[in-house]
Amino acid sequence: MNRFFNLLLFFTCFIAFSQPQSPSEFLPNYGKQVTYYHQVEAYFEQLVQNSDWIKHQKYGETTQERSLNAYYISTPDNLKNLEEIRKNHLYEIGLYPTKSNAKSKTIVWLSFNVHGNEIGAIESALSVAYELVNPNNKDTKKWLEDIVVILDPCLNPDGFSRYANWLRDVSGKKTHPGVSDREHMEPWPGGRQNHYVYDLNRDWAWQTQLETQLRMDLYHQWMPMVHADVHEMGYNEPYFFPPAAEPYHEQIAPFQRDFHKKIGEITQEI
Ligand SMILES: [Zn+2]
């Protein structure tokens, strides 16, 4: 009888261990204090260890030697077939010469925290990743049959760490909501920019910075259909929803204008 209970305990522990943990289970201070970059990486690592719905690829290092990370999230079958799905997708958009046997999947790229001090972005990346792999979330499990998500939780780890370390330094156990409190008066150079104090959100076009160049190498290998660029706005600032204000850049094609409009309608419905 004892052996039976020991065995039961072993399987219970095994099952408990093999479930991915939510951000607040893994990080008791999640949502109360800013998460350090190494904790963000540790959180994603535990998702990778405990779920076969997520795979990790380090795609480079920043100037300050922090890892740049992409996480592929989809069904276990899709993840096993990732390279064929990628080639098939490129074939369908005229960028690869031969068709593969893989079925068409929608490629969705999620970028968080290009502005390092907009920490709502990176913090939300943990919850988004969790809900995508969470076995109890049946909606996301269904979506991922047809979608490959490529999730980059932090495009600007050096800027984010500059901000996060400063915030930890000036805030105590009790955080203060007042806009004039010290923890809301970030000194120059703030965490918005990267190591060289360059705004990486302005660098998508010119690609002069290391982080952008490394990211674009990977981006061009995938050419996603949808790219969400997650920022944080001030509490009394407006939020941006497409379509953008005129004039549009001449390189934005008519089908892209139509698509922006469609996305705007969907986001307003939500
Ligand atoms: Zn921003």
- Summarize the main sheet: 5 strands, mixed
Distance between the termini: 54 Å
Overall structural class, as computed from helix and strand content, comes to alpha/beta
Poorly predicted regions are: 12-16
Described by the principal axes of the CA atoms, the overall outline is globular
Bound molecules: zinc ion
Radius of gyration: 21 Å
Helix content: 40-55%
| Average pLDDT rating | 92
In total, how many beta strands?
5
How is the secondary structure organized here?
Blueprint: H1 2-17, H2 23-26, H3 37-50, E1 54-61, E2 67-73, H4 76-80, H5 82-92, E3 106-112, H6 119-133, H7 138-143, E4 147-152, H8 157-170, H9 203-206, H10 210-222, E5 226-230, H11 254-269
Parallel strand pairs: 3-4, 3-5
Antiparallel strand pairs: 1-2, 2-4
Helix pairs in contact: 3-6
The structure holds zinc ion (ZN).
Zinc ion (ZN) binds next to loops.
Quick gist of this model?
With 270 residues, the chain is α/β, with parallel strands linked by helices. The chain contains 11 helices and 5 strands; from the N terminus they run H-H-H-E-E-H-H-E-H-H-E-H-H-H-E-H. Strand 1 and strand 2 form a beta hairpin.
